[in-house]
C-alpha cells in the first residue's frame, strides 16, 4: 500500500513525500482509514512504528474538510501526552505534516513560563498538544476552553497511568463534549488500560500491529552479566572500542544520571544527563546536542523512555534495569525505529536478576547472554523474587580510580578487547 491510496489530500501527501515517506507503516495503514471514518480507536503498537503520524494525518485531513471557524479559533483537536518531550514530538509532527494547511497548533506543558502559552492560546488554535497538569492550569485560569473539542487523543495511555495521571485525565474528560471522536494509543497493555478504554471509547475499533508488550524485531538484545562496580568501566570500553557515536543510556535515578555523566566525562566521553530535575531549557539543549552529534552519550532516567524520536539511533544501554518490566520495552524502543536496525544492551548485576526474570517473562523469551565480558563471571540465576538488600549496597566505582593491574579509564575506552582481558580472575 502507498500513502496515495489512503484518501489523503494533495497537501498532506506532499508533506509526507517531503519527509521521504511513500509506504505507510502497518499501524498507519490500519488506523488512518478507520479514523477518517470517524470511529473511536484503541490502538496498540510498539514504539517507533509511526503511530504519531497514524493519528496526525487523518485528523488533519478531517479538519481540512471542515469550514474554518472565525477567529479566535476554538480548540477542535486535543492530544494529551504524559511528558514534555512527547508533547514536543507530537507538536513537531503536526507542524511537519500540516505545513501546507491553514491550521494552528500549540504545545502546552509545564516547566516553562505560562505567559507565552496564554498569549498563543488567546490568539486561537485548532490543535492543542498538552500534558495534563499545565492544561488544567490554563483551564482553571479560564484561558482555555475544551467546549468545542471534536477529537480527543490519549497518547501513551499506559505511561499516563504509570505516572499517576488518572485523576487529571478524568477531570479533563469531564470537560469535553459528550459527542466526540476518541483515540487511545498505548505501546503496552495492562488491565487498567482496558478499564480506561471502556470508560472513554464508544464501540471502538481495536488495532494491534504486534503482540502485546513486545520489542521490535529490528532491535537485537544482549545481556552483559557483570558486577555493579564494573558497569561504568565496561560501558566506557563499549563506547570507545566500538567507536559508538550515539548511545542512549538509561539509569534508575536522577542522582545516578548525574553521577554517571560526570564519570564518563572523566573517561573522555562527551555526554549529558537528562532527567526531571533539569530545567526545560537544559533538557532541550541536551536533546538537540545529542541529535546533532555534539555529545556521544545521553544519560537519562525513564522520563526519556517515551517521546524521544531520534532518527537512526543505533544503541541503547540499560545501565540499570527498570523496576517495571514494561518500561524495558519502551526504553529499547528508542532504537530500531522506522524499520532501522538497533542494538539494546543491558548491564545486569546479580542483584538485578529478579528484574531480568520479570522482563524475560514479559517478552516470553530469554535474552542472549554475553559469555565472556572480560570480567569475573557472575550468575544471574534468580534465588528469590526480590532481594532484601538495599540497592545502594554496591556503588559504581569512581571515575578515574584504576585498580591494580588495570589501565586508566581513558585507555580502556580505546583499547582492543584482547588487550583488556586478563587470564587472572577478577
Structure commentary:
Residues 1-29 form the DEAD-box RNA helicase Q domain. Keywords: ATP-binding, Helicase, Hydrolase, Nucleotide-binding. Belongs to the DEAD box helicase family. With 426 residues, the chain is α/β, with parallel strands linked by helices. It has helices spanning 10-18, 26-36, 51-64, 84-97, 115-123, 132-140, 157-162, 166-174, 191-200, 231-241, 254-266, 280-292, 325-332, 353-363, 409-414, 417-420; strands at residues 41-44, 77-80, 105-108, 127-130, 151-154, 181-186, 205-208, 219-225, 247-250, 271-274, 297-300, 315-318, 342-348. The longest helix has 14 residues, at 51-64. The relative contact order is 0.12. The model is unreliable at 388-426 (pLDDT under 50).
Put the structure in a nutshell.
Belongs to the DEAD box helicase family. The chain is of the alpha/beta class and 426 residues long.
CATH topology of the largest domain: Rossmann fold
Distance between the termini: 56 Å
Radius of gyration: 23 Å
Q: Would you state the CATH class of the largest domain?
A: Alpha Beta
- CATH architecture of the largest domain, please? 3-Layer(aba) Sandwich
Mean of residue pLDDT values: 84
Query: Which structural class should the secondary elements be placed in?
Result: alpha/beta
Q: What proportion strand?
A: 5-15%
Shape: globular
H-E string: HHEHEHEHEHEHHEHEEHEHEHEEHEHHH
* Count of spatially separate domains: 2
Total number of β-strand segments? 13
CATH homologous superfamily (4th level) name of the largest domain: P-loop containing nucleotide triphosphate hydrolases
Could you describe the largest sheet, including whether it forms a barrel?
7 strands, parallel
Helix proportion range: 25-40%
Strand order of the largest sheet: 3-4-2-5-6-1-7
Number of helices: 16
Domain Helicase ATP-binding: 32-207
Organism: Methylomonas subterranea
Domain DEAD-box RNA helicase Q: 1-29
Pfam families: DEAD, Helicase_C
Amino acid at each position: 500500500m502507498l500513502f496515495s491510496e489512503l484518501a489523503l489530500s494533495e497537501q498532506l501527501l506532499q508533506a509526507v513525500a517531503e519527509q521521504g515517506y511513500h509506504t505507510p507503516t502497518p499501524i498507519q495503514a490500519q488506523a488512518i482509514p478507520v479514523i477518517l471514518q470517524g470511529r473511536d480507536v484503541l490502538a496498540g503498537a510498539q514504539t517507533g512504528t509511526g503511530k504519531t503520524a497514524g493519528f496526525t494525518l487523518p485528523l488533519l485531513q478531517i479538519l481540512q474538510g471542515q469550514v474554518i471557524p472565525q477567529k479566535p479559533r476554538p480548540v477542535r483537536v486535543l492530544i494529551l501526552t504524559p511528558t514534555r518531550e512527547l508533547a514536543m514530538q507530537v507538536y513537531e509532527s503536526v507542524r511537519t505534516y500540516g505545513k501546507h494547511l491553514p491550521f494552528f497548533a500549540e504545545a502546552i506543558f509545564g516547566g516553562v513560563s505560562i505567559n507565552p502559552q496564554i498569549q498563543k492560546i488567546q490568539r486561537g488554535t485548532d490543535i492543542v498538544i498538552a500534558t495534563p497538569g499545565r492544561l488544567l492550569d490554563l483551564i482553571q485560569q479560564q484561558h482555555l476552553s475544551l467546549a468545542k473539542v471534536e477529537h480527543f487523543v490519549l497518547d501513551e495511555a499506559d505511561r499516563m497511568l504509570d505516572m499517576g495521571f488518572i485523576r487529571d485525565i478524568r477531570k479533563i474528560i469531564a470537560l469535553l463534549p459528550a459527542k466526540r471522536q476518541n483515540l487511545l494509543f498505548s505501546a503496552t497493555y495492562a488491565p487498567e488500560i482496558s478499564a480506561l478504554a471502556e470508560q472513554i471509547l464508544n464501540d471502538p475499533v481495536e488495532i494491534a500491529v504486534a503482540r502485546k508488550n513486545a520489542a521490535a524485531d529490528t532491535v537485537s538484545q544482549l545481556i552483559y552479566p557483570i558486577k555493579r562496580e564494573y558497569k561504568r568501566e565496561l560501558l566506557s570500553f563499549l563506547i570507545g572500542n566500538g567507536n559508538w557515536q550515539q548511545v542512549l543510556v538509561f539509569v534508575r535515578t536522577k542522582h545516578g544520571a548525574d553521577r554517571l555523566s560526570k564519570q564518563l566525562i572523566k573517561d573522555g566521553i562527551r555526554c549529558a544527563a537528562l532527567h526531571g530535575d533539569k530545567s526545560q531549557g537544559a533538557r532541550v539543549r541536551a536533546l538537540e546536542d545529542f541529535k546533532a552529534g555534539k555529545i556521544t552519550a545521553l544519560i537519562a532516567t525513564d522520563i526519556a523512555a517515551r517521546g524521544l524520536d531520534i532518527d537512526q539511533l543505533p544503541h541503547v544501554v540499560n545501565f540499570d534495569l527498570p523496576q517495571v518490566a514494561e518500561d524495558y520495552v519502551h526504553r529499547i524502543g528508542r532504537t530500531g525505529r522506522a524499520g532501522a536496525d538497533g542494538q539494546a544492551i543491558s548491564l545486569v548485576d546479580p542483584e538485578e536478576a529478579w528484574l531480568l526474570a520479570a522482563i524475560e517473562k514479559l517478552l516470553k523469551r530469554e535474552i542472549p547472554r554475553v559469555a565472556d565480558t572480560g570480567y569475573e563471571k557472575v550468575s544471574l540465576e534468580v534465588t528469590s523474587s526480590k532481594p532484601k538488600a538495599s540497592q545502594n549496597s554496591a556503588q559504581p566505582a569512581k571515575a578515574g580510580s584504576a585498580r591494580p593491574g588495570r589501565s586508566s579509564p581513558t585507555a580502556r575506552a580505546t583499547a582492543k578487547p584482547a588487550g583488556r582481558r586478563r587470564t587472572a580472575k577478577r
